[in-house]
Amino acid sequence: MNSPSYSEIIRQGLWHNNTGMVQLLGLCPLLAVTTTVINGLGMGLATTVTLMSSNLIVSMIRGLVRAEVRIPVFVLIIASTVTVIELVMNAWFHDLYRILGIFIPLIVTNCVIIGRAESFASKQTADRALLDGLAMGTGFTLVLVVLGGMRELLGQGTLLAQAQLMFGEAGKALTLTVLDDYRGFLLAILPPGAFIGLGMMIAGMNVINARRERRAAVELPLIQPAKA
User: Fold this and answer.
1) Which residues contact 157 (CB under 8 A, 6 or more apart)?
2) Within 13 Å of residue 189, how many CA atoms lie on the same side as its CB?
3) DSSP assignment of 35-56
4) For residue range 171-187, what is the model confidence (pLDDT) as tens digits?
5) Domain locations in the chain?
């Protein structure tokens, strides 16, 4: 398997192969916990750490694991990593951990994690596997945060509400009340609002990609060398 460049790994993770908007993997936590920016950020960071840790370990042991047992070994690595993250969050971010609830241990079943371990980390060097985990996790986190921001703003009229769950008492100063005396838009914080919001984000991404393709098609003839 050819080794992709670092820049290509980053582009794939953040945009071209984004977990949430292109691969459409990990939709259960993406749609369930993104009622606020902080909830989305917490879930995204937990998933990113899991991706980076599991990718790195899988890459380091790829020459030691027999092909017949690689999937059970990968699942064991991912489950161990998620257990450590769950314990850390329970100890240091207990209130946020209670809000995210069952979706923290369910990171083990996130298809993108086992998918990246099998399709990329098990075939690449440790540095590329680690960067791939970071890029894929960051792309997923951005989708969680943007969707959470949209739903929080429409549903509650605030941004970064309950930031103290992640940043301590100083986080209370980060909360922005965008709309005073706002009664809220219930649909935005219900599951249908998550589907609608994600659909709008995917549509926006498709529009951007279509415009870039049209621009590239127009510019291509201009840069081709003239025939002799």
Assistant:
1) 177, 178, 179, 180, 182, 184
2) 15
3) TSHHHHHHHHHHHHHHHHHHHH
4) 889 999 988 888 889 99
5) 6-223
